[in-house]
Amino acid sequence: MHELSLLWSVRETLEEQALEHKFSKVTQVTLEIGRLACVETAALRFCFDTVMKDSLAENAELVILEIQGAGICRQCGERSEMESLYSPCTHCGSLRVELVQGIDMKIKDLIVI
Question: How far is CA 13 from CA 22, 37, 45, 71, in A?
């Protein structure tokens, strides 16, 4: 379950940001997760409280925003929504599609004290 290691990275990032921006408590963490990022949001929710225990984000609320996958076709140049990593272009059917959205996970924002 790589979601556990992803959350440990989030915790480390929160601790680094707390030192840099001088806050002591996180009450809400909002994550943007692409639908094509191969991240199980149910697993993230399940592990979140355990990973954040005894940290500045203990008892914080986790908000997850799912981002639709999208790609630019290298053949016709059109942008298409992507349902999988290997979806063809919805305009011309080409498989030469470069993914440009929905393949990563990032901390969108925090509510801190």
Answer: 13, 19, 18, 29
